[in-house]
Design a protein that fits this description.
Length: about 300
């Protein structure tokens, strides 16, 4: 029973939602930070006999080389993996287990690149046992602390999101609903492409490539497509303050939100009996809070 309980606990932790992998400048900054830390640790701790190297300038140049290799390898592994398996890295699928797995892949690739670097300088022979020793050394140094830090970060983000969700849901429960009887016409880029709906029926709008998906209360499980951009739709809907941009890919009708959920990835607005879960990014969280607060003050 104890083993089953431990297994279930570990499985639950690994399957818990986790912030999606960093991209763009954020990933570059993260890779550079890791590379600098590696160089500093190697120089000042001096593992693998590095502390015996003299003069210090030689040891520093070697450590900087390892740091540079780490930066290049982490970035290359990151972007090749994302481009090769885009669906695997979707934010809605990302969890603690995948994050740890991706980190371990980084360690393996860094260990491999460092072994090739050591071999190319004539400091090691091209042998399987030495390659495995390099991998074990790399993983031993980084796997445990990275795993612990990942779980600690997950728990911290989860606590913060649960607190924000509770505060936002309190505002929502006190909120006085607006009158939503108006009719809305959304126009697409194609000729005579129009979508007619009512403000009361409209749930949310989602950006999807060159189209937007329109979700309504009457048809929430099958979105209606319109060839347009989310920014264009947002301009059309600007007269209705309850239709709020809550994420770079979503506009939501705040009056139709039935609950708010928090996890390590952030906040989700629940609509249509929880059938739709709309993310709220930190960029737009203030907008949602302001609308609910102002409506409470005016009620």
């Amino acid at each position: 029973m104890l083993l089953i309980s431990i297994k279930n606990t570990i499985s639950k932790i690994l399957s818990s939602p986790y912030p999606s992998v960093k991209k763009g400048i954020d990933q570059i900054q993260q890779a550079v930070t890791v590379g600098i830390l590696v160089a500093f640790i190697l120089f000042f701790v001096g593992p693998f006999g590095l502390s015996q190297l003299q003069p210090d300038s030689l040891r520093a140049s070697i450590c900087i080389g390892f740091g540079g290799i780490t930066i290049a390898t982490v970035l290359a592994t990151h972007y090749i993996a994302i481009l090769s398996f885009p669906s695997y890295f979707k934010s809605e699928n990302w969890n603690v287990g995948r994050n740890i797995g991706m980190t371990l892949l980084h360690f393996f690739m860094v260990g491999s690149a460092n072994f090739i670097f050591v071999w190319s300088r004539g400091w090691s022979e091209m042998r399987l046992d030495l390659f495995l020793l390099m991998q074990i050394s790399t993983l031993a140094v980084g796997a445990l602390p990275v795993g612990i830090l990942t779980i600690l970060k997950h728990n911290r983000l989860l606590r913060n999101s649960l607190r924000e969700a509770q505060n936002l849901d309190t505002l929502r429960s006190r909120h006085k609903s607006e009158n939503q009887t108006e009719r809305i016409v959304l126009c697409g880029n194609n000729r005579d492409e129009e979508l007619h709906t009512s403000l009361d029926d409209l749930l949310c709008v989602r950006a999807e490539g060159n189209y937007v998906e329109i979700y309504t209360a009457a048809n929430y499980n099958r979105a209606q497509l319109l060839r347009s951009t989310l920014s264009s739709v947002e301009d059309t809907l600007q007269l209705y303050p309850q239709l709020i941009r809550c994420h770079r890919s979503f506009i939501v009708n705040i009056e139709k939100v039935e609950g708010i959920q928090g996890n390590a990835q952030g906040l989700k607005l629940l609509l249509a009996s929880d059938a739709l879960k709309i993310p709220v990014s930190k960029t737009y969280l203030k907008t949602v809070q302001t609308y609910l607060k102002e409506s409470n003050l005016s009620s």
